Each structure stands twice: as C-alpha cells, then as structure tokens.
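Supplementary Methods, section 5.1.

A reviewer requested that the exact input to the structure prediction be made available. We therefore reproduce it here, unchanged from the version used in the analyses.
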Amino acid sequence: MSGFPTVERNGESVAFFDAAARGELLMQRGPSGAVLPPEARTDPETGSADLEPVVVSGRGHLVTWSVVHRAPVPALADAVPYVSAVVELAEGPWLIVRLLGDPASLHAGDPVRVRFETSGGSGDGGETLPVFEPVAPGRGGSIAAQREE
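The structure derived from this sequence is encoded token-by-token as follows.
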C-alpha cells in the first residue's frame, strides 16, 4: 500500500486480519441478526455482547468521501493524498475505508467492492488490509445486482 504505514495486529484483531489474509472481509453478527462493523461491542437492538464473526460479500455503495491532503497523524505523511470514504456494505454496516481510484469520477451511490492490500512497504511484513474500489460500469451497478453475482 503505497505510502501507508505498516499495520500490526493486536489480540483483538487476530480474526479480522487472518480473514483479510484469506481475502475475506470479516464483520460481526448480533443475536438480532444485524451485521455489525468489526469494532462493535454490542448488538444495538438487543444490547447483547454475544457477537459472532461473519464473512460478508465485500460489496456495497459509496455514501461519501473526502480527499485527504494533510496527514492527520505523522505516520500517514507519505500516504497523502488519499481518499477516505464511507461505504455502506450490502449487508448493512457503514465502514470508514480507504478508497482507491480517481476521486474526480466518484458519485454518491456508486457501487464499490473490497480488495486487499498489504500495509507498509514491500518486505515490511505488514498486515493485509481491506480497501475499496469502484466497480467498473456494467459490473453489478446496483446492490441487488451485486448480491446476485
């Protein structure tokens, strides 16, 4: 991942990074059936902390984005400019993600999909991370079409 620092796992992120290394995007499912983002601690509908891991499709749509020109922390100084975006997954959760592609061609509602890149420079041994990219025109433009693929 050009310019992005090496990311290392901790005890709470092992399952997430193991899934990413296999090319899977791991979220959580609560007792209510709601799919929740990785950082969720409880199911908002039931209040239960009994969450189970669930692999999701990695497809969704673009809600909003911003081009970051000034690094918010020194570790990201070599990464600017980059696109930070909010993506709504087909399964429901909203995620803040790095978005690849030309920001001038983006539109709210554009279909996106996950892909995986290694953090840090070549040979740094960083974790595999999910990033998102726009789906090419004609390749599952709606959420319904994406679910069918």
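The chain is about 10% helix and 35% strand. These observations are discussed further in the main text.
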